[in-house]
């Protein structure tokens, strides 16, 4: 099975349009949060309607988790609530927050950015922010913006892969931590196409593609220990 992993579209309609028309061939699309944009001129509610309709029309299976931009504002309570709107698009071909779906023998757990505690038994996690203390969660300026609440669960459950986003300019788009492959395609705001990763779930090899470059990672080679960064997951030091 081939997974196409994208993240942090922030209501870039051009990127949404690219997916069904021009994206590489894939069996499952993973969107790891921040489909909406809190600073966009379009109202948040209109963005929700537009993205929800797009999800319903997408021709391939999807696995989606919410990001911090996807939350809903409760005007009466004056607080942000979880992305309940995703429940309305969940269905036979769409897995969303809190759901664990199985495709081609692999289980995928979609973890909301508001879920506590996080994690669970599954081959692949879809989470908005990667675990803290990892190169896919550290920005180019050196600041760790990973999720400390994922560190312990990732160590305990040891999923085969964690597909994430949130950090737009990670130090690295991939990292291997013990038996877990961590991926984050990041975001290049003005690019004509979204950064994306193609993951082969048989070998767990993957390819990172942007408008300007293409890089690959040999999963089978990593399994044999070459070029790996096998260290224990630990919380980032404040």
Q: What do you see in this structure?
A:
This protein has 238 residues and is α/β, with parallel strands linked by helices. It has one domain (2-223): Metallo-dependent phosphatases (Purple Acid Phosphatase, chain A, domain 2). 15% of the residues lie in helices and 26% in strands. The chain contains four helices and 15 strands. The protein has helices at residues 13-22, 44-57, 151-157, 219-223, and strands at 2-6, 28-32, 62-65, 72-74, 79-81, 94-95, 100-103, 106-111, 124-127, 161-163, 174-177, 180-183, 196-200, 205-209, 214-217. The strands form three sheets. Strands 6-3-2-1-13-14-15 form a seven-stranded mixed sheet. A six-stranded mixed sheet has the order 7-8-9-10-12-11, with no helix packed on it. Strand 2 (28-32), helix 2 (44-57) and strand 3 (62-65) form a beta-alpha-beta unit. The radius of gyration is 17 Å and the shape is globular. The protein starts with a strand and ends in a 15-residue tail after the last helix. Mean pLDDT is 91; it is low at 221-238.
What descriptive keywords fit this protein?
4 helices, disordered C terminus, 15% helix, alpha/beta, 6-stranded mixed β-sheet, 15 strands, single chain, Purple Acid Phosphatase, chain A, domain 2, 7-stranded mixed β-sheet
Helix run count:
4
State the CATH topology: Purple Acid Phosphatase, chain A, domain 2
- The helix-strand sequence is EHEHEEEEEEEHEEEEEEH
Number of strands: 15
Proportion in helices: 10-25%
SS strand fraction: 25-35%
Low-pLDDT sequence parts = 221-238
Adjacency order of strands in the biggest sheet: 6-3-2-1-13-14-15
Instruction: Name the shape in a single word.
Output: globular
What's the number of domains?
1
Termini separation (Å)?
A: 39 Å
The CATH superfamily name is Metallo-dependent phosphatases
Question: Which radius of gyration do the C-alpha atoms yield?
Answer: 17 Å
Main pleated-sheet profile = 7 strands, mixed
CATH architecture: 4-Layer Sandwich
CATH class: Alpha Beta
Mean pLDDT: 91
Query: What class would the helix/strand composition place it in?
Result: alpha/beta
């Amino acid at each position: 099975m081939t997974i196409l992993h994208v993240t942090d579209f922030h209501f870039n309609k051009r990127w949404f349009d690219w997916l069904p028309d021009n994206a590489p061939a894939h069996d499952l699309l993973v969107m790891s949060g921040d489909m909406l944009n809190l600073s966009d001129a379009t109202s948040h509610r209109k963005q929700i309607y537009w993205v929800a309709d797009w999800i319903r029309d997408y021709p391939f299976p999807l696995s989606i988790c919410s990001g911090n931009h996807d939350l809903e504002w409760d005007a009466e309570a004056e607080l942000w609530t979880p992305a309940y709107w995703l429940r309305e698009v969940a269905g036979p071909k769409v897995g969303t927050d809190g759901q664990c779906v199985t495709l081609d023998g692999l289980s995928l757990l979609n973890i909301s950015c508001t879920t506590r505690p996080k994690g669970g038994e599954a081959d692949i996690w879809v989470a908005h922010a990667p675990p803290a203390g990892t190169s896919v969660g550290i920005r180019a300026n050196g600041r760790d913006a990973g999720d400390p609440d994922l560190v312990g669960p990732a160590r305990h459950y040891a999923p085969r892969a964690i597909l994430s986003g949130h950090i737009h300019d990670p130090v690295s788009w991939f990292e291997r931590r013990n038996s877990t492959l961590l991926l984050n395609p990041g975001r290049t705001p003005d690019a004509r196409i979204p950064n994306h990763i193609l993951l082969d779930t048989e070998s767990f090899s993957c390819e990172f593609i942007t408008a300007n470059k293409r890089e690959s990672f040999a999963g089978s080679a990593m399994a044999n220990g070459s070029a790996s960064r096998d260290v224990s997951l630990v919380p980032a030091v404040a």
